[in-house]
Amino acid sequence: MPDDHTEPETTTTTAEAPSESPEIIITRLFDAPPKLVFEAFTDADVLGEWWGPNGFTTTTKSFDFRPGGTWDFIMHGADGTDYPNYIRFREIVESERIVFDHGSSPDEDLFKSTITFEARGERTLLTIRQVYPTIEARDQAVEEYGAVEGGKQTLARLAQYLENGERA
Amino acid sequence: MADVFTVLADPTRRQMLDFLRDGERAVNELVDEVDIEQSGVSRHLRIMREAGLVSVHRDAQRRLYSVEPEPLRELDVWLEDYRQLWEESFEKLDAHLERRKQEE
Fold this sequence. Notes:
The structure holds 2 protein chains of 2 kinds.
Chain A: E1 14-16, E2 23-30, H1 34-39, H2 44-50, E3 57-63, E4 70-76, E5 82-93, E6 97-105, E7 108-120, E8 123-131, H3 135-167
Antiparallel strand pairs in A: 1-2, 2-8, 3-4, 4-5, 5-6, 6-7, 7-8
Chain B: H1 4-8, H2 11-20, E1 25-26, H3 27-34, H4 38-50, E2 54-59, E3 62-67, H5 70-103
Antiparallel strand pairs in B: 1-3, 2-3
């Protein structure tokens, strides 16, 4: 991981969880200008194409992309588990920035996200900064989404590999 | 035993670990640093020792505490899973962007 998370040289996703602040910072370089990358966040059908890890699908109940508008959707996990999601957009600056609160329902904000789109020549540096109410909440979120879901997938892949390996 | 996440969720314990990163320290030095009573510091040290985050050894009359990095690797593994989830989304976004660029 580069020392300066804002300047990755390759299209590798970085994720940092600073020990002193309740944030997660995700960065990724995309081989397209900011306008195109930004547009991929502005349409529920397009978001449905890519949002979520492998094996996940998204059902959008409502989508209103403007400050104060909301995106109400369900993520369906590979194992059939449903994860309700509720996003309230706070600030939208075209091709530059999207700020929103993210939770599982209108009554539950889990964290605030700021997504920025920065031109890097013909490419775009995408930075997602998630701010949680406490470090404990941050760590719990990553533990749940990362370790539980990611771990489940890793175990599923391992199981698949072992099954195939035995058959081969 | 508390897991490493629970142990690190406490701000005083994080402060103590940061302090120990500069080198081994005795209990009284930790008490001065974090500004809580010795009984509290000792309790935090016991929790961190049980989680394998600090170790202790005797030096003449003193008991010196130092950081054990191994459990912190667990945090890297944990963040790596989380990073991977985003990477999967981003690869699908790459494919979408390629299609859009060809349309333009």
